[in-house]
Amino acid sequence: MKTYSQYIARKTNEFAGTEHPFDPSELAPQFVSYFETGQRIEVDFGDGMIKRGTVGVTTGWRPVFLLVLRSNSMGSSWTLGKNDRIVKIIR
């Protein structure tokens, strides 16, 4: 299991001394535990759009969480922000 604090430490170290230091400010806190566990969730994006998936993260110095719809997906176009709401935990 990956932990959020290990991820932050690894990325901070990776970007140390670069032009853009690591900035986790766009990582919405309500998704941290699901990032760590890989548990599937259902998310309301606020515009009536509801999607299910697991939480991943973008690469780079200012990452955001992603909703990865399928286990065989390579990335996602569904970014998760502070205003997105978890409506269901898929067990």
In words, what does this structure look like?
The structure is a single chain. The chain is an alpha+beta fold. The chain has helices spanning 4-14, 32-37, and strands at 41-44, 50-57, 65-68, 79-80, 85-89.
Share of residues in strands: 25-35%
CA-to-CA gap between the ends? 18 Å
Q: Please report the number of helical segments.
A: 2
What do the pLDDT scores average to?
Answer: 93
Order of helices and strands: HHEEEEE
The backbone outline, from C-alpha atoms, is elongated
Helix/sheet category = alpha+beta
Query: Could you tell me the radius of gyration in angstroms?
Result: 13 Å
Summarize the structure.
This protein has 91 residues and is of the alpha+beta class. 19% of the residues lie in helices and 25% in strands. The model has no long low-confidence stretch (mean pLDDT 93).
Notable traits:
91 residues; alpha+beta; 5-stranded antiparallel beta sheet; 2 helices; elongated
Topology:
Blueprint lengths: L3 H11 L17 H6 L3 E4 L5 E8 L7 E4 L10 E2 L4 E5 L2
Antiparallel strand pairs: 1-2, 1-5, 2-3, 3-4
